[in-house]
Amino acid sequence: MSEPQKRGRGRPPKIDRQAALRDAMTLFWENGYEGTTFDDLIGKMSISPSSFYNAFGSKERLYREATECFVEGARKWILESLFEEGVTTRTAFSNLFAAAATQFTREDMPRGCMVSLSGTHQSASLTSLRDMMVDIRAGTETQFAERIRKGVTEGDVPADVDVEGHAAFLHTLLRGLAVQARDGATCEKLMRIARAGLESMPARLSA
After folding, report:
1. What's the whole-model pTM score?
2. Residue 99 domain boundaries
3. Which of 98, 100, 106, 168 has the highest count of CB atoms within 10 angstroms of its CB?
């Protein structure tokens, strides 16, 4: 009777880490942290459980990394719009909302914004994830305030403007567009909402 052949241990198959991360990002973006199961993740990422743990450690660590992946892409178009050289504050925010309307209604990604829609409701055990999202949203609002202050310095925003209040308003408008997009609003509707919001700003900001 022949002895059974021993199977070589070999190395686990290599995974395309960035592609797997993008797949995870879209799941979390669409379903939230708790709405995305481990089986959902390994199925979408086309990897084995062992490869998952070797590459990402845990679902929570993957969520954090997927969020960073999303923020890196979003930060690019946000900052490019806000701080484009040679444009007024009004034009900068108009360009920002035009970019948001396009990004929030892309056909190749979930609608809306991962940071706007994820992490607003978490169980007590996931407070750290909720706080991470709060910090990211606060950072965007801070960038809005910086752009308004730049407008004050350059003279296209009234010197007595309530910088923090207007930054919070515009940030709320951005987050509202994400909710509208998730509910099915078209790019054109998002642009109309943004224009209406900007018209409520001080004359030299909204002219």
Report:
1. 0.86
2. 67-206
3. 100
